[in-house]
Amino acid sequence: MDVVDVIRTKRDTGVLSDTQIDWVIDAYTRGVVAEEQMAALLMAVFFRGMSSAELAQWTAAMIASGERMDFSSLERPTTDKHSTGGVGDKITLPLTPLVAACGGAVPQLSGRGLGHTGGTLDKLESIPGWRATLSQAEMLTQLRDVGGVICAAGAGLAPADRKLYALRDVTATVESVPLIASSIMSKKIAEGTSALVLDVKVGTGAFMKDVEQARELAVTMVELGAAHGVKTSALLTDMNTPLGRTAGNALEVTESLEVLAGGGPSDVKELTITLAREMLRVCGADSGKDPEDALRDGSAMDVWRAMIRAQGGDPDALLPRARHTHVVNAPDSGRLVRLDALAVGVAAWRLGAGRARKEDPVAFGAGVELHAKPGDVVQAGQPLLTLHTDDEERFSRAIEALDGGYDIAAAANGFTPSPLVIDTVGA
Ligand code: URA
């Protein structure tokens, strides 16, 4: 097989054969195809796209580059969620124990944050003692005993994606629907879940800035799931405003605990319950318990505590708090009509909640607390946001990120809230 032929075929709008796709993914993973050759092929895919058949084969080859997990010995059906990433998106934290409390088994392999969106593992690592790395046997035991597990994906899962993602990151080829869809779905299919619900975020704080782009990604991923025997559906959800009232690791754990205790911000609660019902519906779990009841009666909180303990964490430990805070007050009286997710995400990141390079540490207590959400009436001088950081020098750049990030209009103008769930695709 000649890699130059493969690149030329795609460059000239041709269709790659199954054999070409299997070979190029395998040879690249083994280091036989050079980085510059794969970079050229990715750019050709970026511009020429892939047919459904090419994409299904490309994804299958990525799955075959590593191990595939198997949870078929569990009595409960497995069901998982994947979010394409947003600001304040802590939903995995309350959702995993909630679905487990209602009869699903949730094998949630998660990642660390890069850039302005936070990573689930970073949030959980703010809990003293909690450990992200589990063996496959430990995962299976925890799923059987507790019902839910959130942990890091092992190096053996879709190793082709690890290399391809790093290369896409430095060759401006991340924002391609087939490349994003194959990257996400290869990991989720290799993870061995029987059902999957995708939360495709749309808006300023998301990858996908408009609904049509997001719908195309959702449809592509739902089709890939179906082609590999994973019952998959997708929700398109709003990410123009941060979710909930916090962005930052320990701050988001605290807010998730409020949801598990039956309270919490209405948007986080609504999305958690909506996704939980969808995950249970898609996997066919029928314990008869509704997620809203499992939040009310404390059973989801019981699963959370068992999950944290099973991974070495202390569910009663005090969470880290940042050393310094700075309050941003409302400059005018009126109705807050816009609070931009990207501005808040970048501010939280600059305060130390996120990382610029994957080897950087995160500051667990850093982040942004929101005291008002779009639709709320505020008075001039009233606290709008509290910024948290361990390093006071970070305040000025965070404040810069928030400049132009919110609008206050006359209260009498009224306000029509955007729907949180925009649409549903598949299953
Ligand atoms: N998340 C992934 O895992 N892969 C992508 O390509 C984009 C987001």
The strands making up the biggest β-sheet line up spatially as 1-4-5-13
Termini, distance in Å?
39 Å
SS elements, strand count: 13
Reported for the largest beta sheet, the result is: 4 strands, mixed
- If helices are DSSP runs of H or I spanning 4 or more residues, what is the number of helices? 16
* Uncertain parts: none
Distinct ligand kinds: uracil
Structural class per helix/strand content? alpha/beta
| CATH C-level category of the largest domain | Alpha Beta
Give the name of the CATH superfamily of the largest domain: Nucleoside phosphorylase/phosphoribosyltransferase catalytic domain
Shape: globular
CATH arch. level architecture of the largest domain: 3-Layer(aba) Sandwich
Q: How many structural domains can be distinguished in the coordinates?
A: 3
Which fold name is given in CATH as the topology of the largest domain? Pyrimidine Nucleoside Phosphorylase, Chain A, domain 2
> Can you write the helix and strand succession as a string?
HHHHEHEHHEHHEHEEHHHHEEHEEEHEE
How large a portion of the residues is in β-strands, by DSSP E?
15-25%
* CA radius of gyration: 22 Å
Helix content: 40-55%
- How confident overall, as mean pLDDT? 95
